[in-house]
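Title: Prediction job returns without error message
Component: structure pipeline
Severity: low
Priority: P3
Assignee: unassigned

Description:
Job completed but the reporter wants confirmation the result is attached to the right record. Sequence as submitted:
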Amino acid sequence: MDAGTTIDPLPPAREIPAAFAASVRSWWSVGEKQSAISEERLLRRLPFFRPRNLSTTPNTDSPVIAHSSRVDLDTPKQYLNTLSITSTSPSPNAPPPAVVLHGYGAGLGFFYQNFPVLAQWAGRRGSSVFALDWLGMGRSARVPFTVKAKREDVVTRVAEAESFFVDSLEEWRVKMGLDKMTLVGHSLGAYFSVVYALKYPTRVNKLVLLSPAGVPRGPNLTLPSRELDERETDGSGDAELATKAKVDTIRAEQNVEKKHESRSRRLFTYLWEEGWSPFQAVRSTLFWGPMLIGKYSSRRFMGLSEEDTRDMHDYIMNITLAKGSGEYCISHILAPGAHARLPLVDRISALKIPVTFVYGEHDWMDPEGGTESVERLRQAGNGHGRMYIISRAGHHVYLDNVKAVNDLLVKELDRH
């Protein structure tokens, strides 16, 4: 930004709820305006981000410039919330832009620590980086989500649920005027990235899948009570190519966690099959909802500074308490236990592009699915499948070991 530019201050973030009264006050202030403020508060950490209320011309000496916008889709009242990081000196030989896609119930703000390095890549290569919220999630349009297929018609159910997301991504691509994209997806966002590539193969340059959901066949593990203690994570460690011994170690740890599952899983299974969303529980507890979110965010982001943790909590609360929409896809796509009704491992061999799987050392996603997928790709003649294990990281690998994942992302974006 230009020297001397004055940026209007944002209201201070709410404290993480520590008492009942604070939670109630936080609840009533949730809304679109507050949601936008909470997201912008995270994005203002990026020196190249231009706030929506800043009319001054940005500093063109910066290699990139970033801004947020709503990208309207063809259907009225449908739009995708988008962060655009574009080079100020675009190259005619630039690689396809990277598109970052969040997981279930999350939003683009979760990647705020990854954007600086991705922006450096965009500036160096004269390309762009985009991050968006899936339709019905984050700050994108919360439109009704419905599936018309009968419960027993699994193939049609899955196809309808997947199309809600991947077709809106394709509409977004057309609106943005992009020819090809490199998709960087996390968890359910990684699942949708693969589905999109299968449906629109000419539009994807490569895939980078961070702890992807829905890969292996058969029962997978439910989310353990201890995903990763942030106190064990100091950001050190690297990405290492996966070996059979490493995968076996991760799976052994997952099996130990599975033995501690509660008997209440039977109730959870019933609710899941009935189309229940875990966010319903938070929204339906009028007074305790914000406190539940505060407990999660304060535990989950222990590795962040106090200010970053507070701002992440505020952001999570706003996108969680928004109207239910895309979240209801989950029971159509995944069976109880988080294994896919139509596993990606049985579909992925059709891809002819580079595919990179990335798992955390303490991940709850079964890495065996990634191992088998790489082999399936190889057998189909695609030798560009790879798999990495990120040390000292759990399911949210991009937050648990930021440096290792950022280095790997740049490496994979530059890989030919």
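Comment from assignee: result matches the submitted record. The CA atoms of residues 44 and 413 lie 25 Å apart.
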